[in-house]
Design brief:
Blueprint lengths: L6 H7 L4 H7 L12 H13 L10 E9 L5 E9 L8 E5 L13 H11 L2 E5 L11 H16 L11 E6 L1 H16 L7 E5 L23 H4 L6 H11 L22 E9 L3 H13 L4 E10 L10 H17 L3
Parallel strand pairs: 3-4, 3-5, 5-6, 6-7, 7-8
Antiparallel strand pairs: 1-2, 2-4
Helix pairs in contact: 3-8, 5-6
């Protein structure tokens, strides 16, 4: 698939996957539209936090750690690693999604367990503070503080970043990872990152798209994307109202980094076809490739934003799981 698709090919991607579309017929209409942003977020947060967690896996050791932010706040980190590990292993850091307003590290426990077993790596998943209680740029600043702590304490976790040091996340966590991959380069983080996994994030200031990308940046005005069940126009507006980000800041949009985009590690990306963030991935991948960065991307036609949370048992959901492990294997250069 070409890095920059023509407009008509992009528009086809937002036609809902038939299997997911059939399942959506049984989904009730959202009762949250019209609520004030903070009330909507609090109700969504309750639902996220009530999601059942998978049982522990004997082959995976799980524990809870902590790190301290620049203002002296102690936050949690989850650690997952092979229970039988006797030697240091590669390291993967994962930031959860949720529009900077929802979510917690636990929400991806099943994914962490699969990563540990398939990749034989150590996974660390940090907590970061959420809006509206903690607005921009606190979530990304917390995440940078966490990454520095992890890099300097990797041996304590049974990891050796020289064997592989992958920065990753989905949705808001991918926004964070894109920004921090540049911050790591600009500040000379040691050990250096060896790879980045950017999953369904946003990377551009959508009100100031570079001319080269304008005809390819269509998902934010596509009505099928705007009404997507996982990230709709209404939920996105509530996230933004509570997070209050500066959309022109390189601490929110990786494409805006003033030092350019050379010297980044190889990057694996994922994009959902029925997602307002879709075209950020196509355009940012092009930007990276233009700067000599090796990339790989998987696209899920007709998949709503982060569809695997709700539709994991569909053919597209199974494909996402397989692609994710293949993408990580590529990042670890195995």
């Amino acid at each position: 698939m070409d890095i920059l698709l023509p407009p008509h090919e992009l528009d086809k991607l937002s036609n809902v996957d038939p299997e997911i579309g059939e399942a959506l017929e049984f989904f009730p209409q959202s009762q949250l539209n019209g609520l004030p942003p903070e009330e909507r977020i609090m109700r969504m947060r309750q639902g996220f936090n009530a999601m059942p967690l998978p049982d522990p896996v004997p082959a995976v050791q799980q524990s809870e750690l902590s790190y301290t932010t620049r203002d002296g706040t102690n936050l949690r980190m989850l650690l997952f690693k092979p229970a039988a590990a006797k030697e240091p292993l590669p390291l993967l850091v994962w930031y959860h999604g949720g529009g900077f307003c929802l979510g917690r590290p636990e929400m991806n426990t099943e994914l962490y367990q699969e990563m540990v077993q398939h990749q034989q790596c150590v996974v660390v998943a940090p907590e970061y503070r959420l809006a509206p209680e903690h607005k921009f740029p606190t979530p990304v600043e917390d995440s940078w503080d966490a990454l520095q702590h992890i890099a300097s304490h990797a041996k304590d976790y049974g990891a050796d970043p020289k064997l592989g040091f992958i920065l990753s996340g989905e949705s808001a966590g991918s926004v964070i990872s894109g920004v921090l991959s540049l911050q790591a380069r600009d500040t000379g983080l040691r050990p250096p990152l060896t790879g980045c996994f950017l999953c369904v994030g946003s990377y551009f200031d959508f009100e100031n798209i570079p001319e080269i990308y304008k005809q390819h940046y269509r998902s934010r005005t596509d009505q099928k994307c705007l009404s997507s069940p996982m990230l709709s126009k209404e939920s996105k507006a509530a996230f933004d109202a509570c997070h209050a980000p500066d959309t022109r800041s390189p601490w929110l949009r990786a494409a805006l980094n003033a030092n350019g985009h050379k010297g980044l590690p190889r990057t694996y990306m994922q994009a959902c076809g029925m997602d307002i963030n879709r075209d950020d991935s196509f355009c940012y991948r092009h930007l990276l490739e233009e700067n000599g960065i090796e990339t790989k991307m998987d696209v899920y036609p007709g998949g709503p934003h982060s569809f695997w949370f709700m539709f994991s048992d569909t053919d597209l959901g199974h494909k996402w799981k397989k692609d994710t492990q293949r993408g990580l294997k590529w990042l670890f250069q195995r």
